[in-house]
Amino acid sequence: MQFQDARHDMAVGLTFFLALYQFTQQNLPACKPVLTPAAVISTFLLMGLIFIPVGLVTLRASYSVVEIVDRYDIDCIPEEHRSNKVAYVKDDSISKNCSRFLKVPKSMRAPVYIYYQLDNYYQNHRRYVKSRSDRQLLHGLEYNDTGSCRPLESSDDLPIVPCGLIAWSLFNDTYKFSRGPSELKVNRKNIAWKSDRNHKFGKHVYPFNFQNGTFTGGAKLDPSIPLSDQEDLIVWMRTAALPTFRKLYGRIEEDLEADDVIVVHLKNNYNTYSFGGKKKLVLSTSSWLGGKNDFLGVANLFVGTVSILISIIFLLLHVKNPRHYGDTAYSSWNRKSISS
């Protein structure tokens, strides 16, 4: 019995030694593709034939999107106040009403998405991003540990709901649209992610003591509407990664024809002047690929074109200097004789 156990142990040890030897000597079974000139040239050519059509299709989808971008933060300040823009936007006694006229360059099929765009606005700043309480947004006053919301976790010894710098700086410019004598209705429902509405903002959590402190930030919230229905807030609380970003304001669910003049009645309330920011209004349609973005199409065209150029270069080199597969004349021990 002991002899059989010893033989078994020796067999296991020998198997392990052989496996280890094969591993260290790189003799394990493996896929080792042979990169022949024909295979390499065909691969690059195939990549080019795939990427170029994909790039053309995505570029066409991007070009089919009609987009109107209007920067209004400078033009919507009266001439007499342009020397001190910050004082103007902070003075509540001065009217912030402004009218803009947008001409539709091409026919825009419904829905037409309305975005506001902010430039030079760093929502990804560490202290700004951390100044919120996700549990409070979901449970309201039942959750008291809001230390992460500093410096805006309370006001007058009362908690703030929603607390933090992100909610406090909520965008508060407003827009109304008209075409000729008729007003264009803006649908502001379902502009936030459904998952955010259902799982991140409480259906029974209401704003409390919000924007009642010494320093007033952005928009105020209706204390009679639960946070799950305050979609402006939900959109704003999903912070942007880059300093230039767009956020959805609403949708115009009517077709806009070419050469239509859209009158925008807006209130220029939001202060971007103190940090050199810019505000833009964007009207855009969409395609099966989303909004207007040429990068994906240009990137595909670039990769496809480079792949075809590489395949042509390799083909010319192969035709000029052909080399038969397995020719030992090119081995290291024969190179001296070739050169001589």
TrEMBL record:
<feature type="transmembrane region" description="Helical">
    <location>
        <begin position="39"/>
        <end position="59"/>
    </location>
</feature>
<keyword id="KW-1133">Transmembrane helix</keyword>
<keyword id="KW-0472">Membrane</keyword>
<protein>
    <recommendedName>
        <fullName>ALA-interacting subunit</fullName>
    </recommendedName>
</protein>
<dbReference type="InterPro" id="IPR005045">
    <property type="entry name" value="CDC50/LEM3_fam"/>
</dbReference>
<keyword id="KW-0812">Transmembrane</keyword>
<comment type="similarity">
    <text>Belongs to the CDC50/LEM3 family.</text>
</comment>
<dbReference type="GO" id="GO:0005886">
    <property type="term" value="C:plasma membrane"/>
</dbReference>
<dbReference type="Pfam" id="PF03381">
    <property type="entry name" value="CDC50"/>
</dbReference>
<dbReference type="GO" id="GO:0005783">
    <property type="term" value="C:endoplasmic reticulum"/>
</dbReference>
<feature type="transmembrane region" description="Helical">
    <location>
        <begin position="295"/>
        <end position="317"/>
    </location>
</feature>
<dbReference type="GO" id="GO:0005794">
    <property type="term" value="C:Golgi apparatus"/>
</dbReference>
